[in-house]
Amino acid sequence: MNSKYLSLYGDIVSKIEEGTFPTNSKLPSESSFMEEYDISRDTVRKSLQLLEQNGYIHKIKGKGSFVLDFSKFNFPVAGLISYKEMVEKLNLHSKTIIHKLELETPDSNMAKLLDLTDDGKVWRVFRIRQINGKKIILDKDYFKSEFVSNLTKEICEDSIYGYIEKELGLQIGFSNKEITVEPCSEEDKQLLDIEDFDMVAVVKSTVHLIDGSLFQYSESRHRPDKFKFTDFARRTW
């Protein structure tokens, strides 16, 4: 039984990668696979479940299984890299859309996250990242104004980190990250091309300068089929 469902899984993966089953196409029905491979419905379903777990297909109740774009973008977890640096490294066609750019007094929760005093202000910057024509990331950033005194639309469309390091002369040091999978919010649905997905991958970060000063809180919300988060780990003794 195991060899049968893995055999079907391998055949479908090969057909997806070679383009026989192209991106966004609907896979044949369970009954078709049962007849072609002379296997049970349970075996077919185990194969489809493994395909969905590994990001090759997306099952929609009542409609069938659809092929995803399996060429996901590597997003490093351990490194501290700007979005601009990432898209240049991966040679992606990208556009940044500024949704919000405001200097404001933060609410109590944000003030606590950024360890702000009562009179501290933050820049709130919401940017939609469009890659290959699809709006697939919502970046929500908050910068302490004591470190970043001014931001413009042009700076935010280009690279805030580049501006901080090259123009302000500050050295970005390290960050603490938390990665979760959360239900899509109404904001996600309105601003991103969510399609049939009901979950997003969320990376929450607090970012510090080289001297340890906390200057940024970031929440990056990703459509789950387009990104995989990567890390390199070495065992220490």
Automatic annotation (TrEMBL):
Keywords: DNA-binding, Repressor, Transcription, Transcription regulation. InterPro entries: Bact_HTH_transcr_reg, Chorismate_lyase_/UTRA_dom_sf, TreR, Tscrpt_reg_HTH_GntR, UTRA, WH-like_DNA-bd_sf, WH_DNA-bd_sf. Residues 2-70 form the HTH gntR-type domain. GO terms for biological process: negative regulation of DNA-templated transcription. SUPFAM superfamilies: Chorismate lyase-like, Winged helix' DNA-binding domain. One of its GO terms (molecular function) is DNA binding. It comes from Peribacillus castrilensis. This is Trehalose operon repressor.
